[in-house]
Amino acid sequence: MGKQNRRRRSGRRPESGSAGSEFWSAQRPPTDPEQIANALMAAAMATAQGAASAADRCASALAGREPLTPETEHGARLAGQHIISRVFENGWLPEDVHQAARRHLDEYASGLLIDVIAAYMRPFADKPVDETWRAQLGELNAVVWWSNSAPHLGQWAAKHLLTPVEALTAVVQALALLIRLPRLELIRPLPGTAPAMAAVHHHVDEKILGRVRGLLAKAESTSFPEEAESLSAKAQELMTKYALDRVLVDAQASVPDPPGARRIWLDTPYVDAKALLVDAVANANRCRGIFSSVWGFMTLVGDEGDLEVVELLVTSLLVQATRAMIASGNQAERSADSRSRSYRKSFLIAYATRIGERLAAANEEAIAESAEPARLLPVLASHQMKVDAAFDELFPDVRNRGVAISNANGWDDGRTAADRANLGARHRG
Length: 429
Hints:
By secondary structure, this protein is mainly alpha-helical. It has two domains: 17-180, no CATH class; 206-420, no CATH class. 63% of the residues lie in helices and 4% in strands. It has 18 helices and three strands. It has helices at 3-10, 22-25, 33-48, 54-63, 70-89, 94-104, 107-121, 131-140, 152-159, 164-180, 206-221, 225-251, 271-284, 304-329, 335-338, 341-368, 373-394, 408-420; strands spanning 260-265, 288-292, 297-302. A three-stranded antiparallel sheet has the order 1-3-2. The longest helix is centred in the C-terminal third of the chain and has 28 residues, at 341-368. It is elongated, with a radius of gyration of 26 Å. Mean pLDDT is 82; it is low at 1-21, 196-201, 404-408 and 425-429.
């Protein structure tokens, strides 16, 4: 009975994305590493297009009940390096890949991608690598832990107590996610193309950042409002003074550093409302932001020091906003309404709006109280023009989009909570 006839008789439709299935459904699966790589990539493409069983079918055909062969492991390596190279060329950074994997894959496939990234970096051991890349690789612990005496996949499967079929299924699932990742703006140079030295003018002093982080962490954890206010006031004083001094010093640099860019990933739920908070903090710190609603991250453009502080403030304010939202929902009055999705989303939108207003007012106050406001204002204006130009170059076709507010109680309570929030820095100048 032909395949099409069997499908008609059974009433089943072929799975979407099954193109290329001949690589793993043939009576004799491929044995050449390049053919195996093609089979894995074809299965990954089918999986990315919705063929739910493609990963398992491919893994079963290639491994069956036999141990992983060197040819199969080599093919898996070839497929992984081919696709991860394209992903990085398309603008994704190691942390971006990890964040996408954390949201869309299980722990095995997500962990496998860390090893794929580590293997990708091997040829660049003695070549210049951008400092952001180095920092992210360190945070992910993307290192070659496996022995060079044997292929990686078998060692990885043994480490996690996976069968050959389970290991190859994880490979296909990981590759399927990589295939789905869209092209992004290249915000950091690829390994092998970046100068080995860091920028010298505008990085925030790590001692200052460390003290601010400590103060904000204590402000977030204390249950006493007075103590939190005192701690955040100290952080505010440190950040504001340092920022104003740094802006004036940077303006005198013979070759000022260009604006940088980074991505901030946001967790569900209410990602669009949280993006408003990031945007409010970014604008108050002379940065520009754009939101990717499909994948759930903000790309920010600005001075590296300002970007550091945006991340610090956003992290602290999201903790405070979530805590205030939950506390408001636990109140006896309006209990049903205050636990609804519309209430919580409206709460966060209002919180973000009010935080933006507070930061803008604090920014004006900090400039007015500075030692040289007349000198500072034109410097800040010139700085903002450079940031705007860099943003427009990266994102020439930006469109603004509003967020609907559907719960008045949530809006009112969100603004009230924002008035009580500890900003950590009343703002940087």
